[in-house]
Amino acid sequence: MEIADHATLVLAAQAGDQKAFEILVNAYRSELLVHCYRMVGSLSDAEDLVQEALVQAWEKRATLTSPQSYHSWLYRIATNLCLNRLTRAPRRSLPSESYPQSDPSRPTPPRLREPIWLEPFPDELLAESGAEPESRALSRERITLAFLIALQHLTPTQRAILLLREVLEWPTAEVAEWLHLSVPAVNSALQRARHALRQRDAGSEAEMVLPHFHLQDLLDRYVAAWEEADIPGLVALLREDAWFSMPPLPFWVQGRLDIATVYQTYLFTPAREWRLLPTRANGSPAFGIYYQEAGIGDYLLFGLVVLGVERGQIVSLVAFLELSTLSFFALPPTLSHLRGNA
Description:
CATH class of the domain at 207-335: Alpha Beta
Order of helices and strands: HHHHHHHHHHHHEEHEEEEE
Distance between the termini: 37 Å
Oligomer: single chain
Number of strands: 7
Number of helices: 13
Shape: elongated
């Protein structure tokens, strides 16, 4: 958007032109969604927060004093709403962050449906239009499950400061003014946040270190092994210390042997067949998981598995089984029993 056109739209919106306002906010909606998702760890909550932010932006449009700062003004509104939400919401996590390692030979515990789990984010909603390949790669690294998990261990204020300074690259003085903090306080919080992320090695699971054709070969082998119920073939693709979790079950295991036991005990039963539909989530390869019982009817959506890949091996598998969290993904509820794909 040209600067002159942008200023004209801002002034028109401030004068009450709803069409100008819609043009303005539509240009920023996707990136605000990603920002709010990083803050709260839930795509459904992020969508609500963006909508609320845009309502406030319309109602408070007369308070904006500089058309050039409209972009950062929207972020300020959205960030404050996220901080308010986090004061009354529990920290989101994955089972591996909240529960001891499970015994795969014992029955799985019941699902916990309270809003405590991280939710997946479809890559197709990332605000990447026109971005350089390096920028797209960095954007995807900063939305991986590893990065999201690490963010959840920061205080809400540390989370906001890290995202505003490191991801959005806003000036320290501006962030301090937004959050009603001193510049030294912002710098101190940023250093603590950086240290916390380094300790957790956030972002190390990105598959970008693997050439694309090698990655595709790995994914093809993964699909074939799944659909053939080939447990040794699946295990061979895993790093020795890989881990597997299935939210909303408070259940997770680590290591090839335990993961193989999960496959054998809970998933690959004799009367069940599986199909996988490729997609991407959280900057990582992912698959919609579909099952069919006793060869009858279509394949039904079972969940979404997101793979962490590092140096040619799968290091993590997170199977999101709560179908309501998958509504933002282009995953059909069923796959044809004739073809096994969409």
